[in-house]
Amino acid sequence: MEEFKFEVMEKDGGERIDKFITDCIPALTRSYIRKMIDQERCFVNGKAVKASYRIKEEDVVAFSLPENMEPDIEAEDIPLPILYEDADVLIVDKPKHMVVHPAPGHYSGTLVNAVMYHCKDSLSGINGVMRPGIVHRIDKDTSGSLIICKNDMAHNSIAAQLKEHTVNRIYHAIVYGVLNEDEMTIDAPLGRDPKDRLKIAVVPNGKRAVTHVRVLKRYQKFTYIACRLETGRTHQIRVHMAHIGHPILGDEVYAPRRKRPVRCEGQTLHAKVIGFMHPANGEYMEFDAPLPEYFRHLLEILP
């Protein structure tokens, strides 16, 4: 069992305990921390508290994690394009339509099922039994580069880099309309859409989200772009591009009424480049996931 202890400083007073622990242990998700708190693994000044407890200055927070459990998910022999692998990390080129980790309705055929077969017992267990090795994710219908962590040291290191926005993530996309500027930055906060809780929207009190956009090629009615993430919010590129009037071609959530000039299987969004400092030696590494065939075909036939 792994144990943590924190003393609350003045600046953190009044914050919910689950958010405080999430900030202290960036490798853990807030939902997983709440689950651990519900299992009475969090004590403040020696007393168990609920996730809604608001901490006070000089509170002493003790938090513990259970020993890693063997995932109750089956390893599956699923072909997995691998860009790089060593003892600490695995960089995969996630195929389009593949769910990253198991969830209701998707307990098999996920990236986790595939990496469990490939890595056997070498996966970090920080985020619980449902997401071994998963430190970040991309949408089901987004293809491209993804980091898998093979031990907890690597997981903590990559999670910290993601939190500090030092991981280089560049996506390629095809969007509706012709962008006039060669380069632009979209700085617009994101949060749950107040009109539809299943969607993300630009909202005044949302979390800061920044996307740097560069035009790669212009077509008659479309633009091929590269997007570098400064932050990594849910659906960030899809929402930001829709917000400025240039939603992603094939996006069925944020551009559902747009006419498509050609047939495309879902959104044309690909996580092309990922770069980070290696957890063990601190050297910068960068990997490029080639555009999938359907994406290359679209670039050739778009008017």
Describe what this molecule looks like in 3D.
This protein is of the alpha+beta class. Helix content is 18%, strand content 30%. The protein has six helices and 15 strands. Strands 5, 6, 7, 8, 9, 12, 13, 14 and 15 form a nine-stranded mixed sheet that branches. Strands 1-4-2-3 form a four-stranded antiparallel sheet. The chain has a two-stranded antiparallel sheet with strand order 10-11. Strand 5 and strand 6 form a beta hairpin. Helix 1 crosses helix 2. The longest helix has 12 residues. 35% of the residues are buried. The model has no long low-confidence stretch (mean pLDDT 90).
How are the SSEs ordered, and which strands pair?
Blueprint: E1 2-7, H1 17-24, H2 30-38, E2 42-44, E3 47-48, E4 60-65, E5 82-85, E6 89-94, H3 111-119, E7 143-149, H4 152-163, E8 168-176, E9 183-187, E10 190-193, E11 196-202, E12 210-218, E13 222-229, H5 236-243, E14 269-277, E15 284-288, H6 293-301
Parallel strand pairs: 7-14
Antiparallel strand pairs: 1-4, 2-3, 2-4, 5-6, 6-7, 8-13, 8-14, 9-12, 10-11, 12-13, 14-15
Helix pairs in contact: 1-2
